Amino acid sequence: MPDDGSVGRLEASLPDDFSRYLLRGALAALTQENIATRVQHFSVSMRELSQYLLERLAPDNEAIKRCAWYKQNPDVDGPTRRQRALYASRGGLTDSFLKSELNLDPKEFHADIGPAFKALNKRTHLRPDTVIIDPAEIESFANETIDALLEIFDVTQDVRSEIISRIETHLHDEAIGAFINETIDSLDLIAGRYETGGVLTDEMHVLGIDAEAIRYEITGSVDVTLHYGSRSDAAAIDENFPFTCTAEASVSAPLKLLQDETQMKVDTSAWHGEEG
């Protein structure tokens, strides 16, 4: 039987009962010592599992096809498994953006994930006349198959995390600009006029990346001057309020927030509490 640690890692990452059934079926096949083709049965089940997981990871074929980097493989109907992993890691972000803005080389992703797919394909597409009966060879074969599948998902997640991390470091100026362009209803309700000053961003998160857009959430606090009264009895009060900004940008310009898709919410509940 394959290594318990690798099996445990894979099982812990499976999304649903069906994928767990596939894995258990593959492992059960290896225990049937009276069947000479048990490795083939394991191989077929693992191929089905890998295909199912990658389709879960990137289920929308048409979205993948709309990405600028997508090229149809003439030997495959729809996206390949490797293209699904690519989409899961970067969505529709272009090669030029990754290179020029994030200083990432898309070719490095292919170099990292290529050997894992090659190893997985080799072990999930056995020749019909391939017979492995030596217990040590079977165990090694199973371990290598599971490790290859784990490597695919590890690399995909690592690349996605690196892309997101680098994008998030570029968002500060855009978050500040959002205050200049947005009318904030919650501030309109407590002052006849207001001015926003210093903006402190606490956290910036990428909520999602698809074929057309990238979505963000930015939290922090903003200095605000609230103006009351007319010229003769004018008053100004300086306050600081927390904010949450949800925004969207096109994958063709991921660092330029779309004004129509930007929502700025300033939490003035503390102000209302003081009034009460």
From TrEMBL:
Domain of life: Bacteria
Family matches, as InterPro entries: pP_pnuc_1 (IPR040556), Put_pPIWI_pnuc_2 (IPR041584)
Ranges where the Predicted pPIWI-associating nuclease domain occurs: 13-148
Domain Predicted pPIWI-associating nuclease group: 157-271
Name of the featured protein: Uncharacterized protein
